[in-house]
């Protein structure tokens, strides 16, 4: 039975806040965090907001050995009137529960999770940065904490929410990034955990990413794990290609993360009467479009990345320079509209924004 009252333990002194124009991604954390425990006997219980602090966890806790964990990512924004607001948090909690289901983790009450975040953000409102392109990144996550080395679903968990004032995810900011198509490794396969937001997907992406980083690429573009032919996602964002006036994004096939920004982009494009298709798209098709001059734009979409134009795509031994390596009109329009809604500078015709 879930308790509804969130116990508050406030810290005695507040940390110094970083200069908001100097923020990087995910390096600084606020004064407080939210925690709630789970046991098979009590269910999710003891929700509390406490000072941000290290955790004391048994070294045999299952998360350290078998990686049974899930996470989410969303942001809080400050409006011109000084109000704090969230963007589509219900989608994140819905996805969290889908990830939970895949990882055999007990579900969270979605409404209560949003309420917990609202209460935490209200307390940490002064941490929401105001410089252009900055926001307060919210990282809810669940770890399995039962001390046991058998391979089985844990019977104890912690659900934690930490907050980090952030700037742009890529060092390029909102300028176009360079991406390399990954030919050696795969991220996941249909039937695997690709559509769940679980740490293992990201751990398995590191080697490929490290290899291409040495050559100046921001990230890799993953192809499907069976035929190595169809485009999947970047790992930190979903991808879109504008070919001959139409936008194509890989269909959700079970191995691609269902991004909240991806969904919002699709809705905006439909609203603007710009044709958008969710379907399988191969790298050959993108290459063909590049060669015949119809590949107009490519961009990634994600909570951390927002809208990230792709200026260069390396595939086999060729560099596809897209839109002269510049931000395309559609990427710009999407970025301006999405951030306009998120920061409360534009109307919100879809009812996406949730006040804190
Ligand atoms: C997000 O966009 O919130 C993500 O979770 C991507 C990330 C791994 C930084």
From TrEMBL:
Gene3D superfamilies linked: 3.30.470.10, D-amino Acid Aminotransferase, subunit A, domain 2
The entry's keywords: Amino-acid biosynthesis, Aminotransferase, Branched-chain amino acid biosynthesis, Pyridoxal phosphate, Transferase
Keyword Amino-acid biosynthesis: yes
Cofactor(s) required for function per UniProt: pyridoxal 5'-phosphate
InterPro entries per the UniProt record, alphabetical: Aminotrans_IV, Aminotrans_IV_CS, Aminotransferase-like, B_amino_transII, BCAT-like_C, BCAT-like_N, BCAT_family
Keyword Protein transport carried by entry: no
Pathway membership: Amino-acid biosynthesis; L-leucine biosynthesis; L-leucine from 3-methyl-2-oxobutanoate: step 4/4; Amino-acid biosynthesis; L-valine biosynthesis; L-valine from pyruvate: step 4/4; Amino-acid biosynthesis; L-isoleucine biosynthesis; L-isoleucine from 2-oxobutanoate: step 4/4
A single BP term in Gene Ontology: isoleucine biosynthetic process
A GO molecular function held by the record: L-isoleucine-2-oxoglutarate transaminase activity
Catalytic reaction(s) noted: L-leucine + 2-oxoglutarate = 4-methyl-2-oxopentanoate + L-glutamate; L-isoleucine + 2-oxoglutarate = (S)-3-methyl-2-oxopentanoate + L-glutamate; L-valine + 2-oxoglutarate = 3-methyl-2-oxobutanoate + L-glutamate
Residue numbers bearing the N6-(pyridoxal phosphate)lysine modification: 197
Enzyme Commission no: 2.6.1.42
Superkingdom as given in the UniProt entry: Bacteria
NCBIfam families, sorted: ilvE_II, PRK13357.1
Similarity field: Belongs to the class-IV pyridoxal-phosphate-dependent aminotransferase family.
Record's protein name: Branched-chain-amino-acid aminotransferase
């Amino acid at each position: 039975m879930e308790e509804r009252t969130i116990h508050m333990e406030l810290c005695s002194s507040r940390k110094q806040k970083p200069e908001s124009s100097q923020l990087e991604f995910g390096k600084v954390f606020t004064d407080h965090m939210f925690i709630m425990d789970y046991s098979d006997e009590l269910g999710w219980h003891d929700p509390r907001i406490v000072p941000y602090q290290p955790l004391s966890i048994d070294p045999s806790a299952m998360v350290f050995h078998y990686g049974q964990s899930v996470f989410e990512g969303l942001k809080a924004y400050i409006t011109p009137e000084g109000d704090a607001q969230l963007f589509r948090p219900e989608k994140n909690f819905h996805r969290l529960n889908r990830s939970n289901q895949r990882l055999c983790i007990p579900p969270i009450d979605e409404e209560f999770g949003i309420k917990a975040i609202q209460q935490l953000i209200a307390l940490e409102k002064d941490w929401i940065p105001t410089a252009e392109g900055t926001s307060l990144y919210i990282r809810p996550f669940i770890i399995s904490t039962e001390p046991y080395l058998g391979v089985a679903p844990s019977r104890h968990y912690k659900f934690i929410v930490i907050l980090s004032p952030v700037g742009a995810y890529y060092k390029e900011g909102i300028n176009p990034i360079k991406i390399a198509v990954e030919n050696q490794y795969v991220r996941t396969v249909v039937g695997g955990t690709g559509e769940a937001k679980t740490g293992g997907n990201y751990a398995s992406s590191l080697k490929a990413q490290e290899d291409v980083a040495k050559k100046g690429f921001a990230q890799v573009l993953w192809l499907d794990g069976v035929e190595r032919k169809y485009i999947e996602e970047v790992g930190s964002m979903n991808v879109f290609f504008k070919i001959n006036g139409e936008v194509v994004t890989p269909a959700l096939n079970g191995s691609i993360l269902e991004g909240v920004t991806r969904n919002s982009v699709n809705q905006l494009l439909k609203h603007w009467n710009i044709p958008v298709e969710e379907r399988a798209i191969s790298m050959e098709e993108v290459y063909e479009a590049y060669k015949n001059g119809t590949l107009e734009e490519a961009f990634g979409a994600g909570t951390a990345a927002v809208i990230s134009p792709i200026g260069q795509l390396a595939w086999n031994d060729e560099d596809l320079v897209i839109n002269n390596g510049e931000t395309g009109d559609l990427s710009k329009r999407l970025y301006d509209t999405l951030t306009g809604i998120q920061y409360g500078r534009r109307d919100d015709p879809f009812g996406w924004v949730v006040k804190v």
